[in-house]
Design a protein that fits this description.
372 residues, alpha/beta, Rossmann fold, seven-stranded parallel beta sheet
Length: 372
């Protein structure tokens, strides 16, 4: 059994009884009921995930940046060349990217995972099978970039399975190494095109509704990108309400048809993190599109995922609405890498600490507010 299938087998529901105990504890703390707003809801969710009241701190965290290239880039959907993917992976490994800076501030580690980079990397990471993530760069290449989704499937079934396993393996290794919260990261020039296609496929929205400017493309390139997303949906039979029904019925087939290798690895990571019973913090539209797939494959895993931030890409809002998730922060970010989700890490820790460390009315000698 591969790592992904093994993670599916280990999934259990979150502990609703622990969540109820957390809610009762909130009522005993020295504050008016509900006065901490969403922090109280977050604390209850962390208790349900860990089956502990109060919950363990979601610290330290680990960001896994899954990197891959996309054949659809040849259709003129981005002004950036594919070589930038490999260059940015080297930047992650060297600690110089935005996500590295933000992760350091939050006390989190960053691991870059080459699951499908087309160009040669300046240095190869250790194979994921070695189980050693200390170098910050993991070599897990399934193939050199995905197929052009406007004219062919992104990957074969066997390649999909390998990418799913990579994500699940990385989640398992990071938690075994002490991570108490996982953060989704991604890198791949052209990645917002398959992300838009996935969001459209799983929500039934039109290509124009879900397709954004990505790295900042102009109007003519945006028009071309919409056409490419529409062509991918039409080719794969995943457009409109009928296409959405088909995608939800066969989510992994839809992923293989119009997704990317990093999307597949993220699906494995989302399920693998849930199987390890730790919170998984979602970043932007690439993570949201992968989450739409994972939610259909593994419904039990959904309660382990928390939306970190709202990406400026239009597909992110549509995808989160479909998932019933409300992001923790909204700063207009659209960088990817895991950068937006990193900024939400202190909120998770604050939620856990308030439930754990605040005095109760009895312990502090404070009179309770009368409740009718």
């Amino acid at each position: 059994m591969g790592a992904f299938r093994a993670a599916l087998e280990r999934l259990v529901p979150v502990d609703r009884v622990a969540a109820e105990r957390a809610e009762r504890r909130q009522l005993s703390l020295t504050k008016p009921p509900g006065s901490l707003g969403r922090l109280e809801e977050l604390a209850s969710r962390l208790c349900a995930i860990a089956s502990e009241v109060p919950p363990p701190l979601p610290h330290p965290a680990a960001v896994a940046v899954f990197a891959a290239d996309h054949g659809v880039l040849s259709q003129g959907v981005s002004p950036w060349p594919a070589e930038v993917t490999a260059q940015m992976v080297a930047n992650f490994a060297a600690g110089g990217a935005a996500v590295n800076v933000l992760a350091r501030q939050m006390g989190a580690r960053v691991v870059a995972v080459d699951v499908g980079v087309a160009s040669a990397l300046p240095r190869a990471g250790l194979p994921v099978s070695d189980g050693d993530l200390t170098g910050g760069l993991v070599g897990a290449k399934v193939r050199r970039g995905s197929g052009d989704i406007s004219v062919e499937d992104a990957m074969e079934a066997s390649e999909l399975e390998k990418a799913l396993d990579v994500g699940a393996q990385v989640a398992t290794l990071l938690t075994a190494d002490g991570a108490r919260c996982l953060v989704t990261g991604d890198m791949g020039i052209g990645s917002t095109t398959p992300s838009a296609a996935l969001v459209a496929a799983f929500t039934g929205a039109g290509a124009a509704e879900v397709t954004g400017r990505g790295t900042g493309i102009d109007d003519s390139m945006l028009e071309q990108k919409v056409k490419v997303v529409s062509a991918a949906l039409q080719r794969s039979g995943l457009s409109g309400p009928e296409g959405a029904a088909r995608a939800r019925a066969e989510p992994l087939a839809a992923l293989a048809a119009i997704g990317g290798l990093e999307h597949a690895a993220l699906v494995g990571f989302l399920v693998g993190g849930a199987a390890q019973r730790v919170p998984v913090l979602l970043d932007g539209v690439i993570a949201v599109s992968a989450c739409l797939v994972a939610a259909e494959v593994a419904p039990l895993a959904r309660d382990y995922w928390i939306a970190g931030h709202m990406s400026a890409e239009p597909g992110a809002a549509l995808g989160l609405r479909r998932l019933g998730m409300e992001p923790l922060v909204d700063l207009g970010m659209r960088l990817g890498e895991g950068s937006g989700a990193c900024l939400a890490l202190p909120l998770l820790e604050a939620a856990a600490r308030t439930l754990s460390e605040m005095a109760t009315f009895d312990s502090a000698g404070v009179s309770e507010i009368p409740r009718s």
